[in-house]
Write a structure and sequence with these properties.
The complex is a heterodimer of chains A (about 160) and B (about 100). Chain A has about 160 residues and is α+β, with helices and mostly antiparallel strands. Chain A folds into 2 domains: about 1-35; about 40-150, Immunoglobulin-like (Sandwich), CATH 2.60.40.2470. Chain A is built from 3 helices and 9 strands. In chain A, a hairpin with a 6-residue loop joins strand 5 (about 90-95) and strand 6 (about 105-110). Chain A is globular, with a radius of gyration of 22 Å. Chain B has strands at about 5-15, 15-25, 45-55, 55-65, 70-80, 85-90, 95-105. Chain B starts with 5 loop residues before the first strand and ends with a strand. Classes of the chains: A alpha+beta (about 160), B mainly beta (about 100).
Chain lengths: ~160, ~100
């Protein structure tokens, strides 16, 4: 009888502690969320998205950026994209899919020790140019590759 | 505790670290319709992924709904050693978040 009471007390303490941990974890995202550039990600035009996120839409084509993506993507819902930048002091890498409803797919802000390398998977509505934009020393560099999509990845 | 939604693999070779992570998340764009009801499925996608190593932010990614379902992400950085801890966390547009820590090999 007495022992049962101990167990009950213990389990309530554990449950209480996890509850506090969860609420503490929920407090941080609010400060992080403020940095998400809504205007850039909701822009319907690739140039406008670039202006909103990086401050300019004029990019220089560079051979130092390698964009690895399939020539033909059978499934538009999963298109693997790898960007490698050999430009010194690469600050950020952005991926733009020109024909998507919202062209800006992602921006990766890199730290001082981080290499100019990013690999991820994106969705593509239809055949489109995929552009990798690299920001380095306040300038924008880009490289583009056309990816053919057989089945679009944005419909249901 | 519930199982984390993030799987991390990090390897260090000569001070260079390569991190791969897989997050389990629906990445719903908000444009898809439920076939049975014809109603739009509300948007739910990860907006921000942050990776920290030794108290410093190594990489901070801002994502649109364009990123595929169950996102995969890989990146690399220098100045790491085997056994270091790495922390990855994400936040989605509904305010949900998760984070995990992993030891680098």
């Amino acid at each position: 009888m007495n022992q049962n009471r101990r167990i009950l007390l213990k389990s309530t303490i554990v449950a209480g502690a996890t509850g506090i941990a969860i609420s503490a974890g929920l407090l941080t995202p609010k400060t992080v969320l403020a940095a998400w550039p809504k205007a850039a990600f909701e822009a319907k035009d690739a140039n406008k998205a670039l202006e909103a996120s990086l401050g300019s839409s004029s990019t220089t084509t560079s051979g130092d950026i390698k964009l690895k993506a399939p020539d033909i993507a059978e499934n538009g819902a999963v298109v693997p994209v790898t960007v490698t930048s050999k430009i010194a002091n690469t600050e950020s890498i952005s991926i733009i899919v020109a024909e998507n409803g919202t062209p800006l797919a992602a921006t990766f802000n890199l730290g001082a020790n981080t290499k100019g390398f990013i690999s991820t998977r994106i969705k593509m509505g239809k055949t489109s140019d995929v552009t990798a934009v690299v920001k380095a020393g306040g300038k924008l560099y880009s490289t583009t590759k056309n990816v053919k999509v057989t089945i679009g990845g944005c419909g249901g | 505790m519930a199982k984390s939604s993030i799987k991390v693999r990090a390897k260090v070779k000569n001070g260079d670290a390569k991190v791969k992570c897989l997050i389990s998340h629906p990445m719903e764009t908000g444009l898809r319709k439920n076939k049975k009801t014809g109603k739009l499925i509300p948007a739910k996608f990860i907006q921000e992924v942050v990776c920290e190593h030794g108290g410093k932010t190594v990489m901070n990614a801002q994502w649109n709904a364009t990123i595929s379902k169950n996102p995969f992400l890989s990146f690399a950085f220098t100045g790491a050693k085997s056994g270091d801890m790495i922390k990855i966390s994400w936040v989605d547009n509904t305010g949900k978040s998760d984070s995990t820590e992993a030891k680098m090999k």
